[in-house]
């Protein structure tokens, strides 16, 4: 008798779309294992229920994907043996638990900022240093608040640097300076000098430094035969900084949102990394400091994931969400923890 996938969630299904059917069997069967699931499409507008089916092949974690076409106006799928997502938003439901050794990890992808490297001085301090010769002394706390507001607004209106990274950062710098109390006319006058100075600084080791564990862990993983890749929402200047810091050559594949035109937590970002690395998502691990963009995004793409939350002053720059719930989340406090995690997976 085939193991029954656990109930995952319920989703309303618009009409006339092909859908991805995702399921998980507990305990995981030994692959290859095939079964047929029979969800019911129930019409909401007085139509009769319609039986559907999809043949699924379960992988090593007991997860499976199959295609299911629904062409019933106002249809909704329900039941214990299904879970759905739009094709471009395919969800890998029931990701492997931390420490699950049933699949060997062959690729580890890293976020960049606040995972591998961090500003050498707080960003607002570096902005204050560059602003002062042109705009006079501005309070660093005011620069910090203004920068956060400007960055959040531009990220909302120009995701993935839609209008170009230089224009994006020019707008952030201009809004930061004015918001921190600088004379708008002076900002306009000196912006052509301020912007390239700041862009250059944050393209090099002058603006960033590596965390102490970054190079050591990447080299160790590569020595163990594990590919190491980069998946970042930063613009391409982060690559110049990483090259200056002597770590960029250790990463392949490299997926940068400015080049891709999409950004984490989009599933396709992680899927591209796995495809370019020639690795199935279930054999890949992603590590980053953002709960949604890094951890949940990678899991929905079928990858394993670890959330990095450094302790003490080193963790102050992490992208933390107000009121975030870390229950059930696999958290590590150092990149060193990743080596043991990966090695356990490779003993099977």
From TrEMBL:
It comes from the Eukaryota. InterPro entries: HAD-like_hydrolase_domain, HAD-like_sf, HAD-SF_hydro_IA, HAD-SF_hydro_IA_REG-2-like_cap, HAD_sf. Coiled coil: none annotated. Pfam families: Hydrolase (PF00702). This is Haloacid dehalogenase-like hydrolase domain-containing protein 3. GO terms for cellular component: nucleus. It comes from Dentipellis fragilis. SUPFAM superfamilies: HAD-like. One of its GO terms (molecular function) is phosphatase activity.
